[in-house]
Structure formats: structure tokens, C-alpha cells
Amino acid sequence: MTDEGSGADTHGWPVMRSIVRIVGLLGVVAVLLHGPVSADYANREDVQRYMDELHTEHGFSKDELQIIFTEAERQQSILDAIARPAERTLKWFEYRRRFMDESRIEGGVRFWDDNEAALRLAEDEYGVAPEYIVGIIGVETRYGRIVGKHRVIDALSTLAFDYPSRSAFFRKELTQFLLLVREEDQAFDALKGSYAGAMGYGQFIPSSYRAYAVDFDGDGVRDIWNNTTDAIGSVANYFGEHGWQGSGPAFVQVYPGGSNADEVLAPGLELDTTVGALKKVGIEVRDVPEGTAAALMRMDLAEGAEYWLGLHDYYVITRYNHSKMYALAVHQLAQAIKTRRAATLASR
Questions:
Q1: Domain CATH for 258
Q2: Distance separating alpha carbons of residues 129 and 54, to the nearest angstrom
Q3: Is the pLDDT of residue 197 over 60?
Q4: Does residue 290 have an active-site annotation?
Q5: Which member of 140, 263, 284, 306 is catalytic?
Q6: Closest by alpha carbon to 249, among 296, 298, 310?
Q7: In this structure, is residue 113 part of a structural domain?
């Protein structure tokens, strides 16, 4: 359906208004009874051009592509969800509350206990501490409990062809997904994930899967949907490939003192200053060498604010999700899980 003609009934046409209402109600009933109506992607000119590109550049069968895009469904719920990501709509204290609850911390301890051997092996091979791998999986999917309910083919088709502001990005991800399905011998309509097409325990988008997913248990399959060992190794490999150091903290809390800290906040995610430069303007930084590259950020509380310094591994976390709040949530959940597990082990 389109919005064409939506402004035609503005001068008093009661019969036409009644027809529009009836048609609209019938559409709602159809969706409630039968779910999303097919977008008929296979017969759209833009999709046909895209299919031609896939055939020419990657050797996909045109008949196969016709089946895939006949089956793909446009999902309005996906367009609604991507328009309001939590990182843009919540303040820090609200965002943090979503991830620092008791059940997620305890769930992290259990996940660590259940997968201790794989986490230890991942740390040995990639240098990534277990708490950060567990923290990522905890934030992303509650340790595999919430991995997404959307068919990936529907999510990526909807965003590739009906979300103009980021259509180029999602068309690339759709191509990566179709290549993934072919390479891994998966059914295109079976894999499910988030509204943005992210999959498995660690919520890898298709390009990340193809680049960073690993067969960590050596069974010949890169399974991030059901195999926790592969999921753990894949998250660790992602961090390793993006330069994880593990030699110092990802974040340290700092104190503005008499400075006007808000004037020297990092405008983006990059490490745009040094600890020494921040000390010179009056910001109190403890136990970090002055030459260390850093990014200063303000996190809003219900009343007031707190200030954090992101260091090298903070920036690596933002390669997973380009959000300062996301990175700090992962860090704080990781530290809470580590502390809780240590206390639990000590009491046994």
C-alpha cells in the first residue's frame, strides 16, 4: 500500500470517507488474521534491478531469486522499531536500567559457569576477558533467550527497499545474507533475528557473520544460533580483529572538579584527546598515564550527571555498536558479572 491520494478527501466527500474507512478496516482485519501482506517485492522494478545485479555479480539463479523475493514480506513493525532505537530515545540512567537488572547479572554468572571452558579458550586465543564476552551476549540477547523473532529475509528486504535513509547499507547486508545462506547451506526463510537483521547469541549482522564468525568447536559449522562455543569464539574474534588490547580498563570514571567538563566532551566516538590534556583543564583522572588517548563523555542521571573516560578498549566495543551508552552498559554489566561470580565462588 502507498500514501498516494491520502490528501484527496479534504473538502467533504462523506461517501468516499466511508469507503476509505471500510477499506482501512478490512486491511487491519487482514493483517490481524493473516499477518503481513506480501510486498510483492519480486515484481518491483527496483528489486528486479537488484536481482539482476545478484545474478551478474554473484551468480545467483534468477529463478531462485524470484522465489526468494516472492516469499519476502514487508514488515511495518520493523520500520517502526528502527525509527526509535533506545540509544536515541533514552537517557543514560534509563538505558542503564534496562541492562543492569538482577536477573541479567545472575544470568551472566550462570552463562559463565556453563561455558567456562570455551570462555577460557577464547581468552587464551584472542586475549578478550570472559566478562566482556559474557557482557556482550548478555546485553544483546540475555544469553540467547531473546535472539529476535523476525525472519532475516523479511527484515533486510523491508529495510533495503522501504527504508530510504539507509537503504544502501541494508542492500549490502541483504547481499551478504544471501551469500551467507548459500555458503552455509541454510534455508533463506528459516533464519530469524532482530528487526535489523542481526542474528544469534551475539547478534551478528550478515557481513559480520561472514567476516568474524568462527567454528570454535571444530565441528565444521559456524553456528552462532544454537552453539554457545561458536558464539563465544565469534564475539572474541570480532573484538580481536578490531584491536582489543585487554591491558587496561575500557572505562574509568572521572570527576570534573572546577573545570567546565562539558566544553571538552568528545563530539563523536573517537579517542580525541589525552588524559594529560584533560588534567590540564582541571578534570580529575586517577591511575591512568597522561599520554593515554581518551574520550570524555557525560552520562545523564535522573538528577545531575556523571563523567566517564573511554579508553582504547571502549572504542573497540563501539565497533560492535556505535553508541557510547551501549559500550558503557556492556562494561558495567561485565564488571558486575565478574564481581558477582567472584563472590559466589568465594562463598562455595
A1: 1.10.530.10
A2: 40
A3: yes
A4: no
A5: 140
A6: 310
A7: no
